[in-house]
Amino acid sequence: MSKSATVPSYLRQRRVVLHIDLDCFYCQVEHVRLQIPSDIPLAVQQWQGLIAVNYAARKAGIQRHCTVREALAACPDLKLVHVATYANGEKEPKYHLNPSYATHKVSLDPYRRASALIFKIFQRFCNIVERASVDEAYMDVTEIVNSKLLGMFPNLDENSEAPDVDWANLGAIYENSETSFVPTDSHIDNNDKWCDWQLAVAAKLCAEIRDSIYRELGYTCSAGIAHNKTLAKLCSVLNKPNGQTVMRSSQTLGFMHSMPFQKIRNLGGKLGNVIEDVLQVETAGELWKFSVDELQTRFGRVTGAWLFGICRGIDSEEVVHRNVAKSMMAAKSFRPPLKNLEQIQHWATILGTELYTRVIDDFELNQRWPKNLVIHYRCVAQTAPRSKSCPFPRRGELFSPDTISTKISALFKSSAYAFPCVRLAASATGLNKDNSVGTIDISQFVAVRRDAGEDTATNSDHKINMHTHEIASTERQHKNLPESSLMKKQATLDKVLQQNCNQTLQETEAKIEDTRLSESCDKFNLSPGDIRRFFVDATASTDSSAPDIVPSDSSDTKSINEMSLCDKCNKMIPQDQWIEHKDFHFALQLQREDDSGRKLVLTTNNRSSKKRKTDISNYFKNRTG
Ligand code: TTP
């Protein structure tokens, strides 16, 4: 039995989460590679756009989506580094001086390699690491922290009195200056103090992890330390660069009050837009006006309860161990499009080389080997991207990149292609431990079991129960707060809002009806059919309806992206669409959970004030129909 099993139960139930995010990641990789001090303004460029800007350059007003010309006008001393590229016929990416879109292919390998080394360090400290993107992760350190606490206080039990925490040297400790939200010491009970001890121990551990990354790799990162993922993520940006912030429970309400609610995880995309439209709110604090019943009536049992909690900083989502992607992809968009098989062959060589290098790198690092080789291509005459696959060459059969390149060409030739071709991508999918090599990491099995259990009805009920428990304790915290005029104003507002509710919803309905389908299509680069599937299939049992967004390496900076594999639908998703994409699955999961109890409904009033209930999938189906 683990040591932490003997800490009081309220400490075992209080999750302790770190969110660590590298500072200006691609820039730091270039600083280290080129041995340039971090106070020199530097930006990473892809064709004529910037994809990463360091903090010295940000001071000069340069931002990520500036063009090279704009950036140099603002800061003539700016050091520009173009991302590595594969040139015609080259087997390895290089830092070419003047790469051309027509002849070169972008390679993000240097950043992926740096990322893999960083995650190795995370893994050394903690066995529950959830990769959120190429340069950020959540870590569940509850067990480690509880065990350290027991080492520090061997007699710790339900009756132990908590000494004061010395917060010095643990990073920034968030404090809200608005006294109406800050409980006095007399409102923080003994259990809360022990929970603060958990955060203090976690903060020390976090500083050690960050220090290791700096000492071993030369990168700085920032972090948030809190009792859940949402708060850890929200506070990790508060002291960037190279800072960490602790969010104590007693400070949470003050922190959340003025937080623009769309900054909250899972509320940055569609779900957030619908909530903003329906409730006419901008900050998390404004959501406090709505009772849990009201939110459940409007958004369903699960969504309503989740929303009620999340706007107060309550989040029961687990950190799921996942520190490597399950597939990898090399892709290229063509402008002008390719016109013949000879050109396809040429690019197949380049894509095959990139994929080969990454598969071999991954094998060395993680002893994994892919199951399938998949090509995705898009030809002008075809409305949607197509794909074709074959088994990936076995380890003993793969001696050079040519084996993959030949297979890519063969797959293309054997498919229903038509010229001109505007995009070609090749992926290695189904990466799994190669059983012929050494021992198998047992944590992978644990991760699979966790994934498998994630969506069950029992789990969803458990989440609601956890929520109810935390909501009750937050209400107690609310009561403990000094009576403020603000709170009274909220109660009055609540009543006014109830009265105006019908009008607000009517306006919202009209507004949403006015939003044309084409807007969504533009935003997601999808066809109307994709949008329809996105919502109509929301009740289906698999996530195959997730938008099939094929990556690009065009000159548009927005599409110059790290790709991440979505483990829910097995599709590669560009980083700038990741939040929206996760939102999609999140909405889907909420809807499924709701379907097991009650349909997710928006209660709206039509113009004749007659009540009507709209299933959210029909809602969007109607819009697209
Ligand atoms: P971010 O973590 O969003 O940003 P950052 O690390 O550059 O800066 P910060 O300190 O503010 O966190 O992205 C990580 C890397 O991903 C970034 O260095 C470059 C790359 N990236 C793109 O290529 N395109 C994009 O649109 C975004 C958002 C990031």
Automatic annotation (TrEMBL):
Gene Ontology molecular-function annotations: damaged DNA binding; DNA-directed DNA polymerase activity; zinc ion binding
Limits of the UmuC domain: 17-268
Principal subcellular localization: nucleus
Keywords: DNA damage, DNA repair, Metal-binding, Nucleus, Transferase, Zinc, Zinc-finger
GO BP term, pick one: mitotic sister chromatid cohesion
Subcellular location: Nucleus
Superkingdom to which the source organism belongs: Eukaryota
Domain (UBZ3-type): residue spans on this chain: 559-593
GO cellular component, one term: site of double-strand break
Pfam families registered for this protein in UniProt: IMS, IMS_C, POLH-Rev1_HhH, zf_UBZ
PANTHER family (UniProt xref): DNA POLYMERASE ETA
This protein's name: DNA polymerase eta
Species per Swiss-Prot/TrEMBL record: Paraglomus occultum
Taxonomic path: Eukaryota, Fungi, Fungi incertae sedis, Mucoromycota, Glomeromycotina
